[in-house]
Amino acid sequence: MVFLRYLDVCLVLATAPFVLIGGGPALGYALGAGAWILTRAGVAFVHDRARRAPDGRVKAGLHVAGMLGRVWLVAAAIILARYDGGKSDGIMAAALLLAAFTVYLVMSFVTRDSPLSPRPAQGTPSTS
Fold first, then answer.
1. Torsion 21-87-104-62 (CA) sign
2. Which positions ≥6 away from 67 have C-beta within 8 Å?
3. What is the pLDDT of residue 109?
4. Helix crossing, 26-52 with 87-111: angle to 10°?
5. Which sign does the torsion angle of CA 32, 29, 102, 11 carry?
6. Burial letters for 60-69: b for 16+ Cβ neighbours within 10 Å, e otherwise?
7. Cα→Cα distances 73→1, 3, 44, Å
8. Which of 14, 60, 84, 117 is 20 to 30 A from 125, alpha carbon to alpha carbon?
9. DSSP assignment, residue 6?
10. What is the pTM of this model?
11. Sequential pLDDT tens for the chain (128 residues)
């Protein structure tokens, strides 16, 4: 089940050889892949902190900060790829991030891995 939860990251890493061997825009790929992996790690960290926060306002604030931070970082990566590399690099970064987000969204529904759902305690049987 862990593989399905990180299928988007596997997709991003698995496309690297095809982009590089095929002569695709490497800068756009690198910026898009780096932004996606960084945001996935950052959001996992923020959601873990939010789960352990005792106050509901702190939980909500951490979730909002995680979502907004992710949007800004991904948008910055696309803009940076476009203006630092060129039009094809910007399109590569945007296409990679769109594909990764689509897979992430579908897998979050399949695995029901919502950041708001509580995780069962160790040793406690799950009812689902």
1. positive
2. 43
3. 86
4. 30
5. negative
6. eebbeebeee
7. 28, 25, 15
8. 60
9. T
10. 0.80
11. 677 888 899 999 999 999 999 999 999 999 999 999 999 999 889 988 988 888 889 889 988 998 899 999 999 999 999 999 899 999 999 999 999 999 998 888 888 755 555 555 555 555 65
Q: Which amino acid is at 19?
A: V
| Structural tokens at position 70 | 């992710």
- In this structure, are residues 53 and 116 in contact, taking their beta carbons and an 8 Å threshold? no
DSSP string, 94-124: HHHHHHHHHHHHHHHHHHT--TTSPPPPTTP
